[in-house]
Design brief:
Elements (H helix, E strand, L loop, with lengths): L5 E9 L14 H5 L5 H19 L10 E13 L6 E14 L4 E13 H17 L11 H11 L2 H6 L5 E5 L6 E8 L3 E6 L9 H7 L4 E6 L7 E5 L9 H18 L1 H4 L8 E2 L17 H20 L3 H10 L9 H13 L1
Parallel strand pairs: 4-5
Antiparallel strand pairs: 1-2, 2-3, 3-4, 5-9, 6-7, 6-10, 7-8, 8-9
Helix pairs in contact: 2-7, 3-9
Pfam families: MesX
Protein name: DUF1852 domain-containing protein
């Protein structure tokens, strides 16, 4: 059995006692919140915001708006390239669990939500600046994001991922400040009003959208009820049919909370996105949360982490990575549904 390019999955609870692991990607936003003298207050207020927003959206059979609470786990995927036990932390996401206090049960929430990647830091903080320094008016390299996209899809097809998760991830991020969004007539009962980017298709748009498309993910933009700006949902499969209402609400409540903290100019604005909307981080009419977040540190660390990836992952394994990527074929069926269904059946039988 070939033990090369194998993954291991680990998790750590994001709660009021959360301490960032030594190996965590330091640009990870939730790690940023958990440092300094305000760490515990930050964490408590963040989790309270998530719970309140979840109950606001899951309002049916919930008259006192306290039926549910959310547990958040940080999921880390480490890659062993050579099968020798030496791993590199390639991807971090979040997994939510919904606690129904009325029925006294726990329900799977969304896997994905946030998305952190050392290789993405390398691509955007090292590869792109070098490329544009040499070719100022050109487009990004044609192969930009190819390796990262194949690594991501390889992870989804791995035994490690499918042993832990029943569904494909949904990543929920901020919309791009460089694009204009047009509200459509489509209205989803949970996701809210749909927007389209520049009148384009679901798979084209910003550089981030195109980068995620190489990961096998399409994008749609929705502004849930009570929100002031649309969120970008990156997904494979059918966003509107593959996930329950509570799963979708867990993603919205978690990631809208983080975006209010990270980008208050957009997601904590004092006015709602118009029919035609362009986000701006220079917008002045917004409210701050009571949560301390160092946005400057996050920007600086992206470059540091990109350089770390170059030194510890890309350069030492360049030949191996090139050969693997050249031979790895991304199929249209990126997720082995039979294996996932077996795990779901086994869990139900237990």
């Amino acid at each position: 059995m070939n033990k090369q390019f194998t993954y291991s999955i680990s998790s750590i609870r994001f709660d009021e006692n959360y301490q960032p692991a030594d190996s965590t990607r330091l640009t990870t936003n939730f790690a940023n919140l958990a440092r300094g003298e305000n760490r515990q207050e930050n964490l408590h207020k963040t989790l309270t915001m998530i719970n309140n927003r979840f109950n606001d959206l899951a309002h049916w059979d919930n008259p006192t708006a306290d039926r549910y609470s959310i547990e958040v786990d940080i999921i880390s995927a480490d890659l062993d390239i050579e099968g020798n036990g030496h791993t590199f932390p390639v991807i971090e996401t979040l997994k939510t669990t919904i606690v129904d206090h009325k029925e006294n049960k726990r329900i799977d929430g969304m896997i994905g939500n946030s998305f952190s990647s050392y290789v993405r830091d390398y691509d955007f903080s090292i590869v792109l600046p070098e490329h544009f320094a040499n070719h100022p008016k050109s487009a990004p390299p044609e192969e930009f994001g190819d390796l990262h996209g194949k690594l991501f899809q390889h992870l989804l097809n791995s035994e490690a991922y499918q042993a832990n998760f029943d569904k494909q991830p949904v990543i929920c991020l901020s919309v791009s400040s460089s694009k204009v969004y047009q509200r459509t007539g489509n209205q989803h009962p949970v996701l809210g009003a749909e927007y389209r980017q520049d009148g384009g298709s679901l798979n084209k748009g910003s550089l981030t959208d195109e980068y995620f498309s190489k990961m096998g993910l399409a994008v749609r933009y929705f502004m849930p009820a009570g929100s002031v700006a649309p969120l970008a949902f990156y997904f494979a499969g059918d966003l509107l049919r593959d996930y329950t209402d509570l799963e979708l609400i867990s993603a919205i409540s978690t990631m809208e909370t983080f975006q209010k903290i990270y980008r208050p100019e957009i997601y904590n604005a004092n006015s709602t996105a118009a029919q035609v909307y362009q986000p701006s981080l220079k917008y002045q009419d917004y409210s701050l949360t009571q949560i301390i977040y160092d946005r400057e540190e996050r920007s600086q660390m992206a470059v540091t982490q990109g350089k770390f990836t170059e030194d510890e992952f890309i350069t030492p394994y360049q030949a191996v990575l090139d050969e693997w990527a050249a031979n790895y074929v991304v199929t249209s069926e990126t997720f082995q549904k039979e294996a996932v269904q077996k795990r779901a059946d086994d869990k139900q039988a237990a």
